[in-house]
Design a protein that fits this description.
The two termini are 27 Å apart. The chain has a domain at 13-217. It has 329 residues and is of the alpha+beta class. It has an 8-stranded mixed beta sheet with strand order 4-3-2-6-5-1-11-12. α1 packs antiparallel against α2 (57-70), α2 packs antiparallel against α3 and α8 (245-255) packs across α9 (260-274). A hairpin with a 4-residue loop joins β9 (278-284) and β10 (289-290). It is built from 9 helices and 12 strands. The chain is globular. The structure holds aspartic acid (ASP). Aspartic acid binds at residues 19, 21, 181-183, 201, 203-204, 213-215, 221, 234-235, 237.
């Protein structure tokens, strides 16, 4: 790529999350943490490699999210949670910050990588979102890999459904954050200065069939605008939708001139005040990264200037729902 096509800084950077619902700290063994960290590192490397070879931020977030979807550890693609009917319904979205192009799918059940289906909606149709079996049929027609219904299923997710359903019908009663939250996402800045975001999820255990969360809703769980930042959220989707979290963050930067970390903290705080919890990763056009969360932990990682950082729990001294101390660089 010629230098003239590079952004002023030419900086590349990427941040990912594997959900704001971590296994509780007292139940997290070194072995388990190691497996999560390994998967996060693999995803970061996949995305960063794209950026290092002058690939687009869209290709980078797609590559990172595919790795996380393919890992059974995370609630997206293989390893997705079960809904109340004992089935999987997956949601995903992608967005480009340059022209505000976006694509999403909701309630898909047969496409191996929902993020690719979302991207195909953006690139091959005049629409932003396709749902259900028609979205799967579109993915199939687009040549994407399709899987058997039980491809996404894991014994751990089945056990979580059993526990949730034993808890007197209350959707989230007795569930740990790890069982409630879980989504994967990525945000990136490429060398030309373009931002992109991608998010993919199984939603939450025991959700009603047909329920759609924030992840595929552009402006709620996913948003990218080169004039501000790219955002991918994880958490109580209904609250993220009601607060338009991802869009709120970008317009706080644009209208109020807030820096990335303050805008992210404020947007997440608004979700918390409404009664929700969760987290997000966001990156701005200068390559600043913030990864705040209101939960005990959030699987997360980022890479900038060749330096990788991966973390699971809140750092000692860092306050809840604050981006402070969350940018490791
Ligand atoms: N935000 C996702 C949803 O509501 C779930 C999560 O991230 O925990 O579908």
């Amino acid at each position: 790529m010629s230098e003239t096509r590079r952004s002023a800084t030419g900086r590349i950077a990427l941040a990912i999350h594997g959900g704001a619902g971590t296994i509780p700290r007292d139940r997290m063994t070194a072995d388990r943490a190691g497996r999560y960290e390994e998967a996060l590192e693999k995803a970061l490397k996949a995305g960063y490699e794209v950026l290092e070879h002058d690939g687009t931020s869209l290709d980078a977030v797609t590559a990172a999210v595919i790795v996380l979807e393919d890992s059974p550890l995370f609630n997206a693609g293989c390893g997705a949670v079960f809904n109340a009917a004992g089935k999987h319904e997956l949601d995903a979205a992608v967005m480009e910050g340059a022209g505000l192009r976006a694509g999403a799918v909701a309630g898909v059940r047969r496409v191996k990588n929902p993020v690719l289906a979302a991207r195909a909606v953006m690139e091959r149709t005049p629409h932003v979102m396709l749902i259900g079996s028609a979205a799967d049929a579109f993915a199939r027609r687009s040549g994407l890999e399709m899987v058997a219904r039980d491809y996404y299923s894991t014994p751990q997710r089945r056990a979580a459904l059993k526990r949730a359903q034993a808890a007197e019908g209350e959707a989230q009663a007795g569930m740990t954050e790890a069982e409630r939250h879980g989504t994967v996402g990525a945000v990136a800045l490429d060398a030309t200065g373009n931002l992109a975001a991608a998010t993919s999820t199984g939603g939450f255990t025991n959700k009603l069939p047909g329920r759609v969360g924030d992840s595929p809703v552009i402006g709620a769980g996913t948003y990218a605008d080169n004039r501000a930042c790219a955002v991918s959220g994880t958490g109580d989707g209904e609250y993220f939708i009601r607060r338009a979290l991802a869009y709120d963050l970008t317009v706080r930067m644009r209208y109020l001139d807030e820096p990335l970390d303050r805008a992210a903290d404020s947007a997440l705080q608004a979700v918390v005040e409404l009664g929700g919890s969760g987290g997000l990763v966001a990156i701005d056009a200068q390559g600043n990264i913030t990864m705040p969360f209101s939960t005990e932990g959030m699987y997360r990682g980022c890479v900038k200037d060749g330096k990788f950082a991966i973390d699971i729990f809140r750092r000692p001294g860092a306050s809840r729902h604050s981006g402070e101390n969350q940018d490791p660089f």
